[in-house]
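Hi U.,

Before I forget, here's the chain from the pilot set. I'm dumping it here mostly so it's searchable later in email.
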Amino acid sequence: QVQLVESGGGLVQAGGSLRLSCVASGSTFSISTMGWYRQAPGKQRELVAQITSGGNTNYEDSVKGRFTISRDNSKNTVYLQIDSLKPEDTAVYYCNSKYVYVGRWYNYWGQGTQVTVSS
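Structure:
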């Protein structure tokens, strides 16, 4: 069982920055693909950024150039640096961990952290 704890959300003005953090419990962090998802009111949860165990990253088109995902395996932590925030970035941001072990996929979610961007 993996527990994910997000932090770093808050209220920020448009154009500002935030850094979200997600700390994972357990010993599987280094083999996990870590992702940040977000869900705005009335919308489906969407993937915004992902980083593999090997450090490869991918981003949703609307956040490219503004969001940066990174990981520190020594701290079991994944980060999401969010710059040039826009009101449409307002959402609950969720951390996700997934890995495969002995042929079975495991998938875990954090409780979410609210990001609110004022115009």
